[in-house]
Amino acid sequence: MSEQSIDDRYRCLNESVKSTFKSDKTVMSFKEFYRLMNEAPECYLRSSAQYAVDMMDHFGTREVFRPTGKVSRFKVFDMEFARGEGRVAGQEEVQWDVYRCLANFAREGRVNKLILLHGPNGSAKSSFVRALMMGLDAYSRKPEGVLYSFNWIFPSAKATKDSIGFGGVGAERGDEESYAYLPPGLIDARLPCEMRDHPIFLLPFAERMELLDRLAPEGQLAVLGDSRTRTLADYFRNADLSYKSKKIFDALLTSYDGDLDRVLNHIQVERYYLSRRYRSGIATIEPQMAVDARIHQITSDRSLASLPKTIQHLSLFEPTGPIVDANRGLLEYSDFLKRPVESFKYLLSTVETSAVTLDSFILNIDLIYIASTNETYLEAFKNHPDFPSFKGRMELVKVPYLRHYSSELDIYRATINEKVIGKHIAPHTVEVAALWAILTRLRKNNEEDFSEGVQEVIRSLTPLEKLYLYDLGEVPERLTTRQAKELKHCIGKIYKQVGGWSLYEGSVGASAREIRTALLNAANSEFYGYLSPLAVFREIEKLVSNTSVYEFLKQEVRDGYHDHKGFLSIVMDLYLRWVDDEICDSMGLAPEESYDALFSRYVLHVSHWVKNEKMLDTRSGQYVSADERFMKQIEGSLLTKSESEKDFRGNIIATIGARALDIPDKKPDYSIIFKGYIRKLRDSFYDSKRQELKTLNQNFLKYASGDQDVLEAKELKAVEAMLDRLKSHHGYTLESARDSVAYLLRTKYEG
């Protein structure tokens, strides 16, 4: 790249920033802000809660369809504005609970409760709050999310030698008297408002009330271009300038003989942006002991000569601390209940009055208070004598572990990838980890809350069947058509029932944090040069053996639930099936007709057999009876010993008919309705090829181990074709394919 092009790029960069600065109205005079506020009061007179609601509405929602029920998901938690980094997987119920809290605060015009997120360790409480903070940060940088406070500007003698007016930018904006646009060289002192007070507080109380009554008749602000109204927050009526700004304002007003306009010429209204990193309108209080707000004197820290004589005699104090940093935004109390109760008793009055009493003055604040804690600390807090007092000032929002397998997968796919790990990740690695995690969190339902027709089915549901029921709406193949239909209608109720208990589903189990650690440890396995599911199994085995470390491992096994060691065996069996399927399919031994087509042909014959009708033979053009030999051949792979051919065929047609009644406008999809039967056909085919499969796998291991010379040309060609398909269709490398084939041979084909 030439020097000239670099210079051009730099010039464009500079012009872009300058243009953005002007178009964003980063700096303006009070008079200019006053005009804007009158034109769009609903935008410029928003409380912290109203602003947060607007932020979530701005990013919008999207529909998420799950078997447990359709939900809307707030897009802010997808974090698209941050390229997806920090995305919160699942937790749509939590999003809506928090949104409802914020919307209620906005309607009431005041934040009068602390939102307390409670759930097990590692359930994404902190991630949820962080996404909310990032959303506020991103929104504050958009035209719709403008926020303003002000600075006090004291010009140099050179700027005011002849008159206040100095032309320049101020004149261009129609406010040449204001000091807001003075260049730095003509400013002796610039005092920011540490509380980020709203500029409307610069109007004396009576004049401010008159303005608010005009802009918000009966306390309601009209929303421009909309029939709705919004409540004017109490903050704008009841709060006032912070101590330092009030002292300066009064001194200047006295000095100017009550000329408000001359006082306001010292005001530079400045746009600010919410930022957790720079503690601007967003702050976090960690659980260690700390004072959340304090004051210090500022005049002793400044050159008195740089301030006007009317200000020099004042003892100016300004508050500091997380509450001050977070004012007009959001304040997070991380691990809230790890602090002694005495350290946050002030919240009882602070949340109720929106004020903090300090040594010399009272702070008026406008904050969203949000905190997090785990269930252990919350249960202990409930036994504290002060809990009833705090309960009235809290909104409890439950944040459980995820119970949807696909959402759990999203967590690991975002953080456990080849870019992060720095090496190949074998197929199914994160899948086996996510499966085991979800199984550890599930609880047995109380079937007595359901109708008699479905009680036995719910009583018999295994954890794995429940996992597939939640995630795919897939009912167990062992059920009758009627049972399957009734169970499908109950999925939402099943999900909500165990989610509503005191020891709720998702309150106990393996956390995503622990699973992620297991995956990262597996990536450093001494046995594999890549991240392997087999290494993950080793890590889970280690985890399961640490019963003294992990509380969830101490649960009593009940009807297959909480059997964490057994869950590992279940996941290993599933992995074996997945690997077997992929390796078999990669060998090129599939039958001439696909299993779906084969079963569809069987259904056609059964349909005509049940109706005792002739069917058209497409080859001969003659009408013939259903092929009994063909049907029995298929049924040889499908029937159990206790089933008769007649009953089996009748059930097939009845199942299709029931599905047609449920979904009349859609042609029945046999690959979904009879998934289990089609699977049996496939397994039967490959069982007949068992010896051939074993030989091919053994040849593959010879090839992968460098013994290609012992293979004949035909065998070598078959192995290379198999490897090519494993790579291109399933994502294996030679090394990961070798280990998977060895595992399959050792587990399924030994002996």
Walkthrough of the structure:
- Strand 18 (615-616) and strand 19 (623-624) form a beta hairpin.
- Residues 162-172 and 300-304 have low confidence and may be disordered.
- It is built from 34 helices and 19 strands.
- It starts with a helix and ends with a helix.
- The chain has 751 residues and is α/β, with parallel strands linked by helices.
- Helix content is 50%, strand content 11%.
- A 5-stranded parallel β-sheet has the order 10-13-16-4-17.
Helix content: 40-55%
Number of helices: 34
How would you describe the shape?
elongated
- Mean pLDDT over the full residue set: 85
Radius of gyration from CA coordinates: 35 Å
Count the beta strands: 19
- Give the N-to-C terminal Cα separation: 66 Å
Strand content: 5-15%
Major beta-sheet overview: 5 strands, parallel
**Unreliable residue runs:** 162-172, 300-304
Look at the helices and sheets and give the structural class.
alpha/beta
With strands numbered from the N-terminus, the spatial order across the biggest sheet is: 10-13-16-4-17
What secondary-structure arrangement, pairings included, does this model have?
Layout: H1 3-23, E1 27-29, H2 30-39, H3 41-44, H4 48-59, E2 61-64, E3 71-74, H5 92-108, E4 114-118, H6 125-140, E5 148-155, H7 169-172, E6 187-192, H8 205-215, E7 220-222, E8 229-231, H9 234-238, H10 243-255, H11 260-264, E9 267-271, E10 282-285, E11 294-297, H12 309-312, E12 317-320, H13 322-326, E13 329-333, H14 346-353, E14 355-357, E15 362-364, E16 367-373, H15 375-382, H16 387-391, E17 394-398, H17 405-415, H18 418-421, H19 429-441, H20 452-460, H21 463-472, H22 481-489, H23 491-499, H24 512-523, H25 533-545, H26 564-586, H27 595-611, E18 615-616, E19 623-624, H28 628-638, H29 645-662, H30 670-673, H31 675-688, H32 690-704, H33 713-730, H34 734-749
Parallel strand pairs: 4-16, 4-17, 10-13, 13-16
Antiparallel strand pairs: 1-9, 2-3, 5-6, 5-9, 7-8, 11-12, 14-15, 18-19
Helix pairs in contact: 4-5, 17-19, 19-24, 19-25, 19-26, 24-25, 25-26, 26-34, 27-28, 27-29, 32-33, 32-34
